[in-house]
Specification:
The chain is of the alpha/beta class. The chain is built from 5 helices and 5 strands. The protein has one domain: Rossmann fold (3-Layer(aba) Sandwich). The chain has a 5-stranded parallel β-sheet with strand order 2-1-3-4-5, sandwiched between helices. Helix 1 packs across helix 5 and helix 2 runs parallel beside helix 3. 30% of the residues are buried.
């Protein structure tokens, strides 16, 4: 499974990579971009991302520089070439308005980042396991 992590916090990006690395049964590949504009360039295979494989799953933070997560989500779900890719909003916001807005923009899932390390790893591993083992994705 090819995963795109859109995360501007280097510590959260590192922890996500570590969570996936430690999951023995996981054979996914993770790409990381640090802002919304770069995420869309990656997904549209523009510039330095020409020829990259589109992800099977996107983990998207909401608070991003250049283009926020809502804008990125709206552009993904409005693009016929991208809208089939599951987008898991993976953010620290617990605000009901953020959750509602993410689902209104057709997020496939909204997951709040746990604050402690053990739960952070467990949640990342569970999300990826669900989308790679339990759910059926388009090929």
């Amino acid at each position: 499974m090819q995963i795109l992590l859109v995360e501007d916090n280097p510590a959260d990006a590192f922890l996500t990579q570590e969570a996936l690395r430690q999951e023995k049964s996981n054979d996914s590949s993770l790409s990381v971009v640090m802002d919304g504009q770069e995420a869309l360039s990656f997904l549209r295979q523009g510039g330095k991302y020409a020829g990259v494989r589109r992800p099977d799953l996107i983990l998207l933070d909401l608070n991003l520089p250049k283009k926020d997560g809502y804008t990125v989500l709206a552009e993904i779900k409005g693009d016929p070439l991208l809208k089939h890719i599951p987008v898991v909003v993976f953010t620290s916001s617990t605000a009901p308005r953020d959750i509602l807005q993410a689902y209104a923009l057709y997020a496939n899932c909204y997951v709040i980042k746990p604050l402690d390390l053990e739960n952070f790893f467990r949640v990342v591993q569970s999300v990826v396991k669900f989308w790679s083992v339990i759910a059926s994705l388009p090929s």
